[in-house]
Amino acid sequence: MTRKLLTGLLLVCACALAQSPEAVAIVNAKIVTVSGPTIDRGTVVVRNGLIEAVGENVSVPADAWVVAGEGLTVYPGLIDPLSTVGLEAAAPAAATGGRAGRGAAAPMTLAAPAATPTAPAERARGPEDRPATTSWLLAADELQPTDRGIETIRSAGFTTSATFPNRGIFAGQGSLIDLASGEKAGDMVVVPALGQYISLSRGGGGGFGAGFPSSLMGVIAYIRQIYLDAAHYQLVKDAYAKNPRGMERPAYDRALEGVLASSRILFPANRLVEMDRMLRFAAELKQPVILYGGREAYRPEALEVLKKAAAPVLVSMRWPEAPRDPNPEDVDSFRVLEMRDNAPTAPALLEKAGVRFALYTDGLEQPRDIQRAVKKAIDAGLSRDNAIRALTLSPAEIYGVSDRMGSIDKGKIANLVVTKGEIFDDRTSIQMIFVDGKKYTPAETNGGGRGMTTTQPGENQ
Amino acid sequence: MRPVAVLLAWVAIAAAASNETILIHNADVYPVTSAPMKGVSVLIQDGKIADIGPRLAPAKGVRVIEARGLRVYPGMLDSGTELGLSEISGVRVTVDTGELGEFMPQLKALVAVNPESEHFGVVRVNGITSAMTFPSSGGGGGGGRFGGGERQIISGQAALIHTDGWTWEDMEINRSAAMHLIFPAIAGRGGRGGNADFGPDLIPNSGGGTYTQARRTYEQQIAKLSEFFDDARKYQKARAANLPGFVRDLKFEAMLPVLDRKMPVAISASRASAIHDAIAFAEKENIRIVILQPRELDRVAPELKAKNIPVILGRVLALPETEDSPYDEAFTLPLVAYKAGVKFAFGTFTNEFVRNLPYQAATAVAFGLPYEEALKAITINPAEIWGAGDKLGSVEKGKFADLIVTDGDPLEIQTQVKHLFIKGKEVALTNKQTRLYEKYSARP
Amino acid sequence: MKKLFLAVLVAFAPLCAETIVIQNANVLTVTKGSFKGSILIRDGKIVEAGEKVDVPEGATKIDAANQYVMPGIIDCHSHIAIDGGVNEGSVAVSSMVNIRDVLDPEDIAIYRALAGGVTTANILHGSANPIGGCTLPIKLRWGKDAQGLIFQGATPGIKFALGENPKSAGNPQGGRGGATTNARYPATRMGVEDVIREAFNEAKTYKAEWDEYNAKVARGEHGLIPPRTDLRLEPLKEVLEGKRYVHAHCYRADEILMLLRVADDYGFKIRTLQHVLEGYKVADEIAAHGAGASTFSDWWSYKVEAYDAIPYNTAMMVKKGIIVSVNSDDAELMRHLNTEAAKAMKYGGLTETQALALVTINPAKQLGIDNRVGSIEPGKDADLVIYDKDPMSDYAKVQKVLIDGTVYFDRDTEVSGRAAKQAAKQRLIDKEKQNQPRQGGRGGRGGQGGQVQ
Asked: How far away is chain C from the Cα of B157, in angstroms, using its nearest Cα?
C-alpha cells in the first residue's frame, strides 16, 4: 500500500512539475488546415510534439488535456521565412542610424543592410582580403534561446523562424528554428543549414577612404570572385584527395568552405531593376536563389522576370509609407507615389501570376504591427486564405520542409496558433501558441506596441 | 593669325589712348533700345558713343574701321559672376569669395578683383564687356563649400565692373552696385545636379531632421536677419542724431544705402516660398530688391510683377529640379518670366561659363523667348537693373562706348567678335588661350 | 509615368516594326554629304538615303517638313544609368568591377539625354583610380531593361585615369603630417605611372600562366588544374590581347605622353584619351601612337590641370589627323552636344561637316562601332535625330529621336502628354492624402525606416 501511495504521490508530483501534458486535444474548434478544406468544427490531437490526429470526428485520447475550442480557430503556426530572431541583437539598421528597440529584431531591409562593425579593422585592399565575409557561420551554432525576441514574435503567432545572420556581404547560413523558450539551442533547430545570406552592403562614401568594396559594382565583383575561387578550390581539393602524393597541399579556406556548403543563396532585390540584375547574377553563378525584399514585385515586368527565373521571392511586409513630416512644397516623384500605392498589392499579384512567394516580418515584431501589415495586403487583394498560406505552407515549401510543417496534417510538427476571431483581423486576439506541441500564452504587451526602429525622432509615443 | 601680325595689332591697339576718336564705318547697328539700322556709322569719342548715323564722314586723324557686312552691338553684361575673384575654382587659395561671417555687408568685392585674371581675356573674346562680380561663393559662403565657418546671409557688396582695366579702380563702374543677401532656405530635395556655384539651395537647415525642425530653423534665421536690419536702423537714427560718443560702425555704415533704397539688395532665393518670403521681407524693410536664380517662378511671378521686382535668371542650360519636372523646365523659365511681365536678365554664375552667356540666351529663344527679349536680357536689362542704364547696355549717344563688332548674330555660336571696345578703347581679343593656340600651332 | 510612356510606345508600334520613310528632310549624312531628300528604314536599318527615294507600299511616313536629320549623337564619356556608385575608389586598380553589372535602365538621365539627341553613350567608371573598372557603350533605348540597353557586339572597354583625380585619395587636401593613415597609393603622377606599370607586369605573368595552360590543353594533356581566374587581371590580359579598349582620362601633356609610352612598352594601344585638354601640346605624339581623343569643347579652369585648356584644342587635334570627339561627362552637357561640337567651328575654324563628325562618326570610330552607327548610310542602324533647325545652331531643338528605327523621343507627344501625366500624379497624391488623415497617435505603426526612396 505504501508503494501505491508513493507512486501515487510521485505521479502527482510529476504532474505538478510537468510543464505540459503528454497529449493535448483541442476540441470543437474551427480548424484551418491550409493543406485542405477548413474544418468548421473539429479536433486536433497533439502528442510528443507531433500532430497525432486532426478531423471532424476524432476521438479524444483518455490522457489528453482537453482545451475547449468553441469560438476559437486553429491555424498552423506562422513561419517567418527571414528573420534574425534568436541571434544576439543583430546590428541595428546601420545606414539609417535608427535605434534598435530593446530586443528588436534587426530589420532585414535592403536600404540598411547590417554592415560589418567597422573601424580599426584594416581596410580591405581587394577581394583577396575577403571583406565582410563570415560565410562559415551557421545560425544554429549562434542561437541564444533566451533572446526575448523569441517570446515577442511568438506572441504574434509565429512558431517557426528562418533565422539568418545578417552582418556583411556573406553573412553565413540561416537555420530553421522552432520558437520554443528555454530549450537547449539544439532542440530548437529544425533545419541547421538553409542557405547563405548575401547582402550588398558596402563601406560608405563610394570611394576614397572606405575599404573594398565601396560601390555596388565592387560588391558584385567580389561575390563573383568568391564563387570563382570556390570552384577552383573544389577542383584543387578534389585533385588532392584523389592523389595527394607529389601535390602541394591546398590551404584550408573557411570562407570558401562556407560558400561551398551552402545549398542556395539569398539575394536582396527591391526594384525591378535589382530583381532582374540579381536573378541574372544568380544564374551566372549557377546558384539556386531566393530573392528577399520584393518591393516592386507588383510590376508586370517583375512578375514576368520572377516567373521566368522560377525563383521564389520573400516579400517584406514593411510596406512603404509616406514621410511623416514632409515639406509641403515637396512632392515625391510619380515613381515613388506609384510604388507606395501599389506595394501592398504585390502578394495578390504574385499569387495570381503563380510565382512562389512568402511574406516576412522584416523587423516588425509587435503583434499589432504584423497583423496590420498582413491586413493591408488582404485589403489590397490577397485573399485571407492566401495570406495565411503566405506565412505557413508557402515558406515551408520554399525551404523544403512542407513534409514536416506549414499545415495541420497528421504526422506534422505540432506548431499551432489558436485565435479568437479570424487571424489578421483588427479585433482578433491570439489565445495560445503551440510550438513542438508545447503550449504558450501570448506575452503581455505593454501600452500597445513599443514601436519600431524608426528614424523619426519623437515618433514613439 | 601669325605671331608677328598679332604683335603688330597689339601694339597698334595698345598705342590707342582711350580718348582716341574712332569711326566704325558702314555697319549694321543693333542699338537694342531701338530698331536696327543698316549701313550706318558709329563715332566713338572720349570714351563715349558720340554719334550714330548714316552719313558720318570720318574727320582727319580719326581711325576708321571699315565694317561693311559687319554688325555693331552693345557689349554684353553677365549679371552673375566671380570674375577677378576666382581663378581656379577647385583651388581655395585662388578664390576670394565666401568670407567667414554671417552678416558682412561691409565687404566689397571690388577691392579683391585681380585685373590680371586670365578670365577677363577669355570672356572678352566672346563680347562680354561688363559684369556683376559677387563676393559670395556657392553653397552658403562663409567658407561655404570649403568647409567651416557660419553660413553667410549677407556676404557683401557686389560690383559692376568692366572686363578690362589697369586697376580695379579703372574697371569700376559701381563698387556698390548691389548688396548680396543669401536668403535662408529649407533644404529640400537633394541632388540638384549641374554646377550651381551660386546655388541658392544653400543654408542646409534640416540636417536630416524633420520639416518642422527645418521650418523652425528657417524662421529663426529670418528673425536674425530682421534683427540685423533693426540694428542697422537704430544705427541710422543714432548717426543722424550725431550725439557725442557716437562711434562709427563699418557694418552698419554699409547698410545705410540699402535702408535709403539707394543700393538694391540682390537676394539669392530659388524656391517659391523663399521668394515670397523675401518679397515680404523687402516690403517690411522697405528696401529695393532683385531676385537671383529663382527656380520656381510660376507662383510668384504675379507678385514680382506687381512689385516691379526684376530677376536674374541662372543658367538656362540646366537640369530640371525634380524627376518629374519637364525636361525643358530650365529652358522655358525665361519665357515664364517674360509672359508674366517680369523684367529679367541672365547670369551664368560660374566664371568658366561667362563667355557662353549669349548661348544661354539663345537656348531660351529656341524654346520660345522672343529674340529681342533675349538680347535685352544680356544688354540693356541688366544695365538698368544694376543702375547703369544711363551709361551702358545699348548703342545710344552719350553712353559708354562699350561695343562689339561682329560678323553675325552674337547669339549664334559661329559668330566671331571682330572688335571689342570698352569705354571707347579697343581691347585686343587675345588671351592666355589664344597665346597657347599660337604657340602650339607653331610647334615644328 | 512608366505606364504612360509604355502607352506612348505602343501608340508608335507601327513605327517600330517594318518600313518607315522620313521625307522632306535636310539630310546631313556626315560622311556622304548633305542633301534635301528622304531616308528609307526597314527593320531598324537604313536601307536608302537620297534626294529621290522610292516609297514602298504601306510604309509609315514621317514628314520632316524641311527639318534637319542627322545621325544620332554618340557621347563618348558618360556616367548616367549607373547604380550604386560610379567609382570603386577604395583600391587603385579596380579592373575587377564592371559597369555592365550595375546598369540602371530607369535613370531619368537616359530620357533627358535622348531629348538632347543622344542615341549611344559610352558608360564609364569614374576617375578615382589609375586603373578603373570595365566599361561598355549603350544605346539609350528608354523603356527597355538593362540587357536591352547594351550595344550588342561592341568591343568592351576599361577606364584609366591620370592626374589630379586618382592622386586625391593618396594626397588628401590639407593633409599636413599625419593624414596619411588611410591614404591610398599613389599620391603623385610618378606613382600613377608606377601603379599602371605594376598592374601590367602582373597581367603579363598572369597571361603567361594561362597561355601555358591553354597550350598544354591544346596538346592534349589531361588532369590539369587551370590557373585561378583573377577578375582583376583578366581585363588587363584582354587589353594586352587587343580585346578590350583603354579609355584614359587625362589632362596634362606630361601624363598623356607618359601613358602613350607605357602602352608602347607593353605593346598595346590607348584607344581613346578622354578629356585630354592639353592634347594640343602633344598632338604629334598622340597622332603617331594612333590614339583617339575625346574632349570638352570649352571647359577650363576648374582644376589646376585644366588651366591651360583652350577651346581650340579640338580643331588643333583634328588638323593633326587625330580622330577627335567632343563628349560631355555630364548629364546636363549631354543634352546639347550638337552645340558643343559647333563651338569647334568658332574656335579653330572647323567646317560644319567636321563639327558634326565630332559627335557622330568620330566617336563611332573611337568605339569601334562605325560599321553600325555614326552616319546616315545604307546598312547602318537607323539611329537618327530630327532637329527643327540646323543642329549646328543653338536655336535648334530636338523634335524626334529614333534608335534602330523606333521612335524613342517625340517632342510633340511629350509636350501634349504632360497634362495627363500631371493629372495621374495628382490622383495619387489625393488618394494618399485621403488615406492618411488617421495619423498622429498611432504610435508604433512602424516607421518607414530608411526604405522609402
From this structure: 25
| Assigned C-alpha cell, C142 | 528608354
Question: Do the Cβ atoms of C450 and A331 come within 8 Å?
Answer: no
- Per the CB < 8 A criterion, the answer to whether A217 and C85 are in contact is yes
Do C260 and C286 touch, CB atoms closer than 8 A?
yes
Please indicate whether, in this complex, the C-beta atoms of B324 and A327 are within 8 angstroms of each other: no
Cα separation, B303 vs B104, in Å, equals 29
DSSP collapsed to 3 states, A203-221: CHHHCCCCCCCCCHHHHHH
What is the C-alpha separation between B50 and B424, in angstroms, rounded?
10
Give CA–CA dist B202/B182, Å, rounded. Answer: 8
Chains that touch C (3 or more CB pairs under 8 A): A, B
Cell numbers describing residue B232: 542697422
Q: How far is A325 from chain B (nearest CA, A)?
A: 6
Q: What share of chain C is helix, strand, coil (3-state, %, to 5)?
A: 35, 20, 45
d(CA C125, CA C391): 30
CB contact under 8 Å between A333 and B323, yes or no, is yes
Amino acid at A383: S
How much is the pTM? Answer: 0.91
Interface size A-B, in CB pairs within 8 Å, comes to 27
ipTM of the modeled complex: 0.92
In order of B29, B64, B419, C253, the CA distances from B71 in angstroms are 6, 15, 10, 39
pLDDT tens column, C288-343: 999 999 999 999 999 999 999 999 999 999 999 999 999 999 999 999 999 999 99
C44 within 8 A of C404, measured Cβ to Cβ: yes
Burial class (CB in 10 A: 0-12, 13-18, 19+), B17: exposed
Distance of CA B346 to the CA centre of its chain: 8
Q: Which of C381, C416, C375 is nearest to C69 (CA)?
A: C375
Q: Which of A208, A224, A338 sits opposite C168 (nearest CB)?
A: A208
Q: d(Cα C27, Cα C42) in Å, to the nearest integer?
A: 18
Is A329's CB within 8 Å of B209's CB?
Answer: no
pLDDT digits (tens, 9 = 90+) for C137-182: 999 999 999 999 999 999 999 999 999 999 988 776 544 454 556 7
